[in-house]
Amino acid sequence: xxDSDAVGAFxxxxxxxxxxxxxxxxxxxxxxxxxxxxxSATADTSTDIGSEKKRxxxxxxxxxxxxxxxxxxxxDIGDRLSCHRTQESLLTSTSGYNNYRGILxxxxxxxxxxxxxxxxxxxxxxxxxxxxxxxxxxxxxxxYSWPAACLxxxxxxxxxxxxxxxxxxxxxxxxxxxxxLVHCINMAIMLTFPAAVVxxxxxxxxxxxxxxxxxxxxLFLKLYSYKDVNMWCRELSTAKAKKLAxxxxxxxxxxxxxxxxxxxxxxxxxxxxxxxxxxxxTLCYELNFPRSPGIRMSFLLRRLFEMVRKHLMSWMIPIIxxxxxxxxxxxxxxxxxxxxWFFHSSMNFTAELLRFGDRQxxxxxxxxxxxxxxxxxxxxxxxxxxFFLSAFFHEYLVSxxxxxxxxxxxxxxxxxxxxxxxxxxxLRGNYGNAAVWMSIIIGQPFAVLMYVxxxxxxxxxxxxx
Length: 465
Known about the structure:
Layout: H1 3-24, H2 34-81, H3 101-126, H4 132-141, H5 147-171, H6 176-200, H7 206-244, E1 254-255, E2 261-262, H8 271-279, H9 297-313, H10 317-323, H11 328-354, H12 369-374, H13 379-402, H14 408-414, H15 416-426, H16 430-464
Antiparallel strand pairs: 1-2
Helix pairs in contact: 1-2, 5-6, 5-7, 6-7, 7-13, 9-11, 10-11, 11-16, 13-14, 15-16
């Protein structure tokens, strides 16, 4: 009743035609014998049968193909009309969904709306606590009463000394030993000189002292990297000169595809290159930093707006602290706002101005971890050295401006080493991440509380008595 019946009828008709033709062909023709005629008829019949079978197979294939196409069209229509398939829920960890930007935007909106009243109450109660115009006028009228700002200006001396030393080393005027000693003395003075000024000059406030010591700490780490990278370039130049009788310095400037100038040693030892590295948001020096194609004004304005907004939101901290008795909440909010303001907004703003291409600001802060590994130290020793350096600078940036030494920051940072070992060995995934957050939320406010207690006892206990 379908395509198969048509094929059967067509086959029966063709067989009947073949039989009639075969009988007729057995009659004598033109005087030839019946045997000859019969053999000729047999050959013609076999040829006709083969060709007909081919046509039958072709027809069957065409009919089968049309049936498959009809079935495929029916399946395609079903797929288009179907709205369900096997899949996981979006909030399930196995779904592969990771775009939570909408939830982050919701958190920001809720934070702003919930704290708008606190912001207005703080503004009405305390007013504008810092007047930028008044600050600038006071500095211009009496700059020597601002020792922290003067220390920032003096920091240029250490930058110039490091650049001069590297130039002399590149020309061979200084030996490697002399250059190493000059660098060591320069960096040692960088850490001790501002600390002595902060400790001995009473007009330096804790905020101003922490700011200037932070600047000198950043310069110390930058110049350490600057010294090492240029030393490696000299070693490569010497090895190349011995092998190929030529150095790695470029006799003529080379250019990248976008037109950026490619610098080779010692062509990098310039004032412009040095100060680009000083202002670049990185602590690891390179001769040729990755550069972005241009400055995006919309991106720049967004980062500037974020910087101003985070500064205004910091006004809410006194009200939040008065309304939330546990110290962990306001301290943690302030830490999160500072982290976002510094590591995202301000660094992206600076990087966009300088067309600095590498925006992963959190990964390459420490320069001497890999050199320690290359020197033959084990991984645990190198990690311990990194944590020790971080603990030293945390204590340096807190104890010196407060003019008291309690080692709370140092102990807190060194405690991160066994915590990292414990989390890496016994906790995985979300549990390890939760343990790290708990250490940040509880450990940091605890250290701040200890410093606040000791500072109050040291400076205000007699007045209270």
